[in-house]
């Protein structure tokens, strides 16, 4: 349930309500808005109903949350969450362009990609060091060596790093290098992994599962936020359908649906959604028009020789043109590019 405090409620009154909620073994999540504070109480419904929270000083009203997700829902937190990554903002009117290769392959490759992202005005560099490949015989990533290469590229260009975590045993090491921890589509329902990244102090980019409904995706985000990490970025990357013209089917309607249901920022990944470089721009524009807070695209200095996802990757020249077109539309939406 949600406890909406009166305007001007004091810190003591908020702390008192939190204490009453915790007395019955429930957890309290305080969100301080511009005018009023809202406290989300999560726990046993019956136990909570036994606490007369309406009678506590400073409480305006108590409202039931009907959706299965609580902390990530707009009911609980009406205002857009703005995620800050090394000073680059995302959400709440701030837009990001994240680009880079599917996999980190060599120092030269990552550095060339990073320079191309920076010179085209991109916001962050992406690149996988731990790769979730469909085949156990395919390139699995460089691991820690790859993380070091990403960090070196950040040192030179200043671009924050987005990279995927597959195994909780690599979390501590990955945190030494990454600025945003990516949870890939295949791990969207790896609940232990979600809880682990829920306990860290770095933003998490959560991709939609291959066959996940929007509600399942938001429940996955709830696992992260429930542990205390509120800096979650949702990423629509296409879902499995019967259509074979594209690698997946880009669900553009997910963008406004999620924005209405949740306060978390949502970005789009047209590269994995389509598997085709010629569709990256039109679907990015569709996602932006639908309200996306950013794009994540694969770009490789030499797509023809990429060790993974080369066919869908943009070249640096194509990316530079792409970024200009993206910026044109973002300006039109009134958002600011970070
Ligand atoms: C990736 O970003 O390279 C990736 C593997 O994406 P997804 O989890 O969306 O398939
Ligand atoms: Mn990829």
How do the strands and helices of this protein lay out in sequence?
Blueprint: E1 2-5, H1 11-23, E2 27-32, E3 37-42, H2 45-49, E4 59-63, E5 83-85, E6 88-90, E7 94-100, H3 107-119, E8 124-126, H4 144-157, E9 161-164, H5 171-177, E10 180-183, H6 191-198, E11 204-207, H7 214-226, E12 232-236, H8 254-261, E13 266-268, H9 270-274, H10 280-289, E14 294-298, H11 316-333, E15 336-337
Parallel strand pairs: 7-8, 7-14, 7-15, 8-9, 9-10, 10-11, 11-12, 12-13
Antiparallel strand pairs: 1-3, 1-4, 2-3, 5-6
Bound molecules: phosphoenolpyruvate and manganese (II) ion.
How would you describe this protein?
- Strand 11 (204-207), helix 7 (214-226) and strand 12 form a beta-alpha-beta unit.
- This protein has 2 domains: 2-63, Alpha-Beta Plaits (2-Layer Sandwich); 83-337, Alpha-Beta Barrel (TIM Barrel).
- The strands form 3 sheets. Strands 7, 8, 9, 10, 11, 12, 13, 14 and 15 form a 9-stranded parallel β-sheet that branches. The protein has a 4-stranded antiparallel β-sheet with strand order 2-3-1-4, covered by helices on one side.
- It has helices spanning 11-23, 45-49, 107-119, 144-157, 171-177, 191-198, 214-226, 254-261, 270-274, 280-289, 316-333; strands at 2-5, 27-32, 37-42, 59-63, 83-85, 88-90, 94-100, 124-126, 161-164, 180-183, 204-207, 232-236, 266-268, 294-298, 336-337.
- The protein is built from 11 helices and 15 strands.
- The longest helix is centred in the C-terminal third of the chain and has 18 residues, at 316-333.
- The protein has 338 residues and is of the alpha/beta class.
- It binds phosphoenolpyruvate and manganese (II) ion.
- Phosphoenolpyruvate (PEP) binds at residues 102, 128, 132, 184-186, 207, 237, 272.
- The site of manganese (II) ion has 5 residues, from loops.
């Amino acid at each position: 349930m949600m406890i909406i405090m009166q305007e001007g409620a004091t810190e003591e009154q908020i702390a008192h309500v939190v204490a009453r909620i915790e007395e019955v073994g429930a957890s309290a999540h305080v969100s301080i808005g511009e005018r009023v504070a809202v406290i989300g109480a999560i726990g046993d419904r019956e136990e909570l109903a036994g606490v007369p929270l309406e009678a506590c000083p400073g409480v305006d009203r108590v409202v039931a949350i009907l959706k299965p997700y609580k902390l990530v829902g707009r009911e609980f937190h009406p205002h857009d969450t703005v995620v800050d990554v090394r000073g680059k903002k995302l959400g709440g009117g701030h837009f990001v362009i994240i680009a880079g290769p599917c996999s980190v392959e060599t120092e030269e490759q990552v550095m060339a990609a990073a320079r191309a992202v920076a010179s085209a005005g991109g916001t962050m560099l992406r690149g996988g060091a731990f790769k979730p490949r469909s085949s156990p015989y395919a390139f699995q990533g460089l691991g820690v060596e790859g993380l070091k290469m990403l960090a070196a590229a950040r040192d030179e260009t200043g671009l924050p790093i987005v990279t995927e975590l597959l195994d909780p045993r690599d979390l501590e090491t990955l945190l030494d290098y990454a600025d945003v921890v990516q949870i890939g589509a295949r791990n969207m329902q790896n609940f232990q992994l979600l809880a682990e990244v829920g306990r860290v102090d770095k933003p998490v980019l959560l991709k939609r599962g291959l066959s996940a409904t929007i509600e399942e995706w938001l429940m996955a985000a709830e696992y992260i936020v429930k542990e205390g990490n509120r800096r979650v970025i949702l990423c629509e990357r296409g879902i499995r359908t019967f259509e074979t013209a594209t690698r997946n089917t880009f669900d553009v309607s997910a963008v406004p649906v999620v924005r209405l249901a949740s306060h978390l920022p949502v970005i789009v990944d047209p590269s994995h959604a389509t598997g085709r470089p010629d569709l990256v721009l039109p679907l990015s524009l569709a996602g932006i028009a639908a309200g996306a807070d950013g794009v994540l695209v694969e770009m490789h200095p030499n797509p023809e020789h990429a060790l993974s996802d080369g066919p869908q990757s943009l070249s640096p020249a194509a990316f530079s043109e792409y970024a200009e077109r993206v910026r044109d539309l973002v300006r039109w939406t009134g958002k600011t590019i970070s």
